[in-house]
Amino acid sequence: MQLLNGIYDAALLLYALSLLFVFSDCLKRNPGGKRLGTGLLVVVGIFQAAGLAVRFSQEQGLPIFTPYDFLFWFSFIIVLTSLAVAYTRGGEFTILLLNMAGFSVFLLNRVWLTAEDHTLQSWSAVHGWLAMHIILANLSFAALTLGTVFAIMYLFLHTRLKHKKWDDRIRRLPSLETMDKYSYTAILAGVPLLLASLVLAGMSIVAEGRTPLFQDTKVLTTLIGLAVYIAYIFLKRSARRSGTSMARWAIAGYGFIILNFLLNSWSEFHGWGG
């Protein structure tokens, strides 16, 4: 555990430094800071991969069955996504917002949870289904986070253009059409993953005979969040709403995703130690 904590703390420190350099580049063009920030992000990804390898050794299998591991994987996926975006033109602000989310999760995971928090021993009969549920949920959350980042950037750029406030930062952002397209594409990828994840969770509950869990408040908020995203896709395809309206729908859906995760502390649905 000491080795894991050391790796985690080193990655956390480098992550913070990377964010500072990326932020400095977004504030004012700083190619050196951008390269250094991206380089540090690569090192962060390596440290995170090393930490996950330690967890793999500790668990003697894929480490995904605790909230700690879930958030660890989520942050790692965000780092990998950011590195992919780093090779695209005008991706500086996308990287900044993505990693603000990734770093926040990584930091909260360090101070809030431990690798020993909760297990799934009592769900041993459906471990395979739950593993797929968790993996798909993580990928879905990462895709929806990316979609939300583009939605936030869309609203920011739209507001600046509406008030005719031009500066170098505005010129570095992708166009409204591009951000709208990227947001929709990311959400379109994330929603089916989320739906498949929820189906697997439902199958696991039924197989284990724990149907009273369907009465949990978390189920309601999950369905509301999913309904918001499905409505977003329907409205987007029907072209009935403006880009700003669709961006707000995307952010609203993500708000329910965040609420859903926060409800874990009071919900029986993810009482994994049961």
TrEMBL record:
Q: Where are the transmembrane segments?
A: 6-24, 36-58, 70-88, 95-113, 133-157, 182-207, 219-235, 247-266
InterPro entries on file: Cyt_c_assembly, YpjD/HemX
**Is Transmembrane helix one of the keywords?**
yes
GO MF, one annotated term: heme binding
Key words of the record: Membrane, Transmembrane, Transmembrane helix
> Which BP terms does GO give this entry?
cytochrome complex assembly
Q: Which GO terms describe its cellular component?
A: plasma membrane
Q: Does the keyword 4Fe-4S apply?
A: no
Q: Boundaries of each Cytochrome c assembly protein domain copy?
A: 71-268
What protein does this entry describe? ABC transporter permease
